[in-house]
Amino acid sequence: MPATEVTALDRHECKACGYVYEPAKGSSNVPAGTAFTDLPQKWRCPVCGAPSSQFVNIGSVENPSGFEENRGYGFGVNTLTAQQKNLLIFGGLALGFLFFISLYGLN
Ligand SMILES: [Zn+2]
């Protein structure tokens, strides 16, 4: 995922009043999905009226690419582990059952 899309999701906090501009939600007179860097130069904090230069980048709510990578990675590992567990469990049960039957047969 391009870095520009991650940057577009970055939230910005007003240093004057603590208002947080979230690109996903937009703001007054700003449609949702507008990156902070795409805000009009005249845009000001809707709470205290501070100019956009008074806002600091506090990062995105979540990193979409990283989140997707982690979820896919974890899901794959969990599936593999479950399969391995099933193999071990049922394989062990089968071996134990055969072992038990063989002992039973000997006796
Ligand atoms: Zn403010």
Automatic annotation (TrEMBL):
InterPro entries: Rubredoxin-like_dom, Rubredoxin_dom, Rubredoxin_ET, Rubredoxin_Fe_BS. One of its GO terms (molecular function) is iron ion binding. SUPFAM superfamilies: Rubredoxin-like. Gene3D superfamilies: 2.20.28.10. Its cofactor is Fe(3+). Residues 9-58 form the Rubredoxin-like domain. This is Rubredoxin. The lineage of its organism: Bacteria, Bacillati, Cyanobacteriota, Cyanophyceae, Oscillatoriophycideae.
